[in-house]
Amino acid sequence: MEKKLLSVENVNVFYGDAQAIWDVSFHVNQGAIVALIGANGAGKSTALNMISGFNPPATGRILYEGKSLNNLPPEEIVNRGISHVPEGRRLFKRLTVLENLELGAFNSTDSRKRMKQSLEEVFRLFPKLEDRINQPAGTLSGGEQQILAIGRAMMSQPKLLMLDEPSLGLAPQIVELMFDIITQLREKGITILLVEQNVYQTLRISDYAYVLQTGHLKMEGRGEELLADPDFQKTFLGMVY
Ligand SMILES: Nc1ncnc2c1ncn2[C@@H]1O[C@H](COP(=O)(O)OP(=O)(O)OP(=O)(O)O)[C@@H](O)[C@H]1O
Ligand SMILES: [Mg+2]
Predict the structure, then answer these.
(1) 87 lines ligand 1 (CB under 6 A)
(2) Cα(78)–Cα(63) distance, integer angstroms
(3) Does ligand 1 come within 6 angstroms of the Cβ of 15?
(4) Which of 21, 64, 90, 197 is the most exposed place for a label (fewest CB within 10 A)?
(5) How many A from CA of 165 to the centre of ligand 2?
(6) Where does CATH 3.40.50.300 sit in the chain?
């Protein structure tokens, strides 16, 4: 049987009084690519921020490796092995590539040795980052900045990598490259939770997908099942490109 790495059970999430996620459940098996898809405002980023500990659920449970994440601070969630590449990348544009990467490793348990190990691994994955080590992040192209954001998240040596719209705003060939990178990371044994609006390509590389609509879980299934489903086609016709 496949092992659940992450389970989200019946969560409700609020911003102040406004509810953004309603009784949503989903899970991510070890080694899988699982997608959360849905239109603007569906609650995709809210779901990732909830798992990262930035906006915990008011009710419901988040279990990772069988243990609750509900009341843990974000640093501890990173220490447990979950890393988040936020929407819009959130790089420090004036800091160099190296400085941005080092910030990704910054937490209490990281020794210098582990930092060096992480850097070597990130440069093995993304050799172009090493070529640009002293360049300010803001001078990189959009695709390179997205790769840097992923590299930064890999510095904490995660088991689960959460990516929020990694293809957003990138040129079509670079979008292809981004999906290739995600597939390669999975081949290296990283489990992926992917948020995307790029529905076709996402379903093509995902093992399983959940569809959110205005904070509710609307549908779920394997990629090819969803693509063949008339309800799904009706909902997403306008979004597919
Ligand atoms: N900081 C915030 N304060 C209040 N409401 C918020 C906040 N962030 C998001 N929301 C609301 O929560 C709901 C879900 O938003 P969220 O950003 O999670 O959607 P999303 O699926 O990531 O959308 P997008 O595709 O635009 O990134 C929306 O109604 C949004 O207006
Ligand atoms: Mg979002």
Answers:
(1) yes
(2) 14
(3) yes
(4) 90
(5) 7
(6) 1-81+158-241
Sheet containing strand 67-68, edge to edge, reads: 18-29, 4-15, 59-64, 67-68
Give the number of the ligand closest to the Cα of residue 47.
1
Which residue's alpha carbon is at the smallest distance from atom 11 of ligand 1? 20
Give yes or no for a contact between 117 and 154, defined as CB atoms under 8 angstroms apart.
no
List all residues 6 or more positions away from 71 whose beta carbon is below 8 Å from its beta carbon. Answer: 56
Superfamily of domain 1-81+158-241: P-loop containing nucleotide triphosphate hydrolases (3.40.50.300)
Q: Which atom of ligand 1 is nearest to the CA of 45?
A: 22
What residue spans of the chain are helical by DSSP H? 44-51, 74-80, 97-104, 112-125, 127-131, 142-154, 172-187, 199-205, 223-228, 230-236
pTM of the model: 0.94
**C-alpha–C-alpha distance, residues 164 and 161, integer Å:** 10
> Would you call 141 exposed, middle or buried from its count of C-beta atoms within 10 A (0-12, 13-18, 19+)?
exposed
Asked if residue 42 has its Cβ within 6 Å of ligand 1, the reply is: yes
Give the per-residue pLDDT at 106.
Answer: 62
Q: Which residues have C-beta within 8 Å of that of residue 139, sequence separation ≥ 6?
A: none
